[in-house]
Design brief:
Two copies of one chain form a homodimer.
Chain A (H helix, E strand, L loop, with lengths): L2 H13 L3 H12 L5 H8 L7 E6 L6 H14 L4 E7 L7 H11 L7 E7 L7 H15 L3 E6 L4 H7 L4 E6 L5 H7 L2 H4 L2 E4 L7 H15 L14 E3 L8 H16 L3 H26 L5 H9 L4 H16 L16
Parallel strand pairs in A: 1-4, 1-5, 2-3, 2-4, 5-6, 6-7
């Protein structure tokens, strides 16, 4: 069987509703399988209908419980739901995640729910690329809502969460987390803020702090978007409190975007994905067999710094390539960005 | 003042023992400052004398306490010590790190100790590149031992720890961490294993498990290296127990490497650094102003998948560059690797 047949076949099976094909294609994305691009091309006309919701926040803020309850709520509305749990430091993220995942697994008896976790060790360093690919695959499968949940809030998670249409940042009272969230830039990425564990002491204060911070920052609006005022939702996910308000917020944000720059925003996210793929491919070409590894080691033997050697290789690449890659672009492509 | 003067000046100040210059150059590394490569070139003849020790393991295993006690022990031997604490998910790594850092700060009154933390959000995604640069700078400053301590054990931490000459993996009894460590590949990177909190129940069992696993795997030896049998050190860092054995293990590993392939191993690590620098630079050139962003967005508008667009750009680059980058290398450079 030729490669093309095989990738087209598995893509067709996915489109026919085969969950095993869905799982397999997500693994292909994770492992950077050489046939994944061909499979994705077959799926592509069906990609773009799902709404992608990123759920992030510091460990212990109750993201997993919130995600689990949100799945239940969305299912009540008969929507199909996919969950992609991102854990760049797996398998050492601690027992909490595992416990929550087991609870979540109760929902997997439900055919309308698909749950998958993704750890960076399996994704060859391309976690954000793989997560975006996995969303595309779930989207083509016909899933209505994709919840991208991260375990922590490091750089890897920020990159992953960039694939979401709506980003929910979950905080909870305690240890100056409001101020830390601002420092960490969480307010900058939030479309909706949730103050979870709202029954705990300090929740009211955290909410006030966040509202103040949002007011100081002013209303954010992407070019062409209707103004979107980031709501602060008081919730207690464990007791099901505040989830209806969160859901209303999610719907509001979606409507605002769909009336605005949704297509443009998604294209920017896809351009980022192109950038990741180009980066991975160039890295392979330059450093795989027949690449520059030996030349680099030989130059390093002559006491050159890594930067000197890098420059030497870049000069060589540019020399072979003539002018710098972009400089041969036509004038329309060179307009300032 | 010209750029060259300025970077040479600050490098000279560092070489004269100025701690402010050391801090500034590490910040330059972190921020990918354009003058950093020139400064590093000035420092380069003095780089290579420090021994770099990576300390990693799951959260809660007591890495920070161990690091802190190791600093004290090394100081007793009159060595100077640098600590680089790597926290890719800062500032949400939790209170434990902060608490330990404050304890550690007691040592910073000591002129022979330099402590610095590095978070990925400040290093423009190039955490491993920045950490390696920071080690080089500390090395040139004349620091004898550099401890690279990671908060967790995700992919980002693995990349960072690759800069170390000796990798210490710290585990502690509880929750099947021994088995998890094997799954996470921690045994593969360990030159020395520490079973910390050895007074806790399960420590003996964990030690036995680890010894069995090491026996099954056989003795690892890099080409040209004398065989190195990974020791399993039973410790209780909080009470200062086992640290002398750890220190003996560190010295033993260093001696074994210095009699073996140390220079070759370091060259391989530096070649990896070249790869990171080339990757960062190409990414900037391809996607900065005048790059391929608009071309990508325009192709995406025509319903191409991100992989199709990436391929289009790569074909364009190869077209401009003639044959693939490596294929014009001289025959000696093309020998199989």
């Amino acid at each position: 069987m030729s490669r093309e047949t095989s990738s087209a076949e598995i893509a067709e099976r996915l489109l026919a509703g085969d969950r095993a094909a869905l799982s397999r294609l997500i693994s292909w994305a994770e492992n950077a399988h050489p046939d994944f691009p061909a499979a994705l091309a077959t799926l592509w006309p069906r990609v773009g209908r799902a709404w992608r919701i990123g759920i992030t926040g510091p460990p212990g803020s109750g993201k997993s419980t919130l995600t689990s309850e949100l799945v239940a709520l969305l299912r009540r509305g008969a929507a199909t739901v996919g969950v992609l749990a991102i854990d760049p430091s797996s398998p050492f993220s601690g027992g909490a995640l595992l416990g929550d995942r087991i609870r979540m697994d109760e929902r997997t008896a439900d055919e309308g729910v698909y749950i998958r976790s993704m750890a960076s060790r399996e994704s060859h360093g391309g976690l954000a690329r793989a997560a975006s690919d996995a969303c595309d695959v779930m989207d083509a499968f016909g899933i209505d809502f994709i919840l991208l949940e991260t375990v922590g809030v490091g750089q890897a998670e920020y990159d992953v969460i960039g694939a979401a249409d709506t980003v929910v940042v979950v905080l909870c009272p305690g240890a100056g987390d409001g101020i830390q969230a601002m420092k960490a830039g969480l307010l900058e990425v939030a479309d909706i803020l949730v103050v979870n564990k709202a029954d705990l002491e300090g929740a009211d204060l955290l909410e006030l702090d966040l509202r103040d911070a949002l007011r100081l920052r002013g209303i954010r609006a992407a070019p062409g978007d209707p103004a979107w005022e980031v709501p602060v939702v008081s919730a207690s996910a464990r007791d099901g409190v505040g989830l209806d308000v969160l859901l209303a917020g999610l719907e509001g944000h979606r409507r605002a975007l769909e009336a605005g720059s949704n297509a443009e925003r998604r294209r920017r996210k896809r351009a980022l994905q192109v950038r990741r793929v180009v980066g991975e491919r160039l890295d392979e070409e330059l450093w795989g067999p027949g690449g520059f590894t030996e030349r680099a080691e030989s130059s390093l033997r002559k006491s050159a710094t890594p930067y000197d050697v890098a420059e030497e290789i870049l000069v060589h690449l540019r020399g072979v390539a003539g002018p710098r890659p972009a400089e041969d672009a036509s004038p329309t492509e060179r307009s300032p960005s």
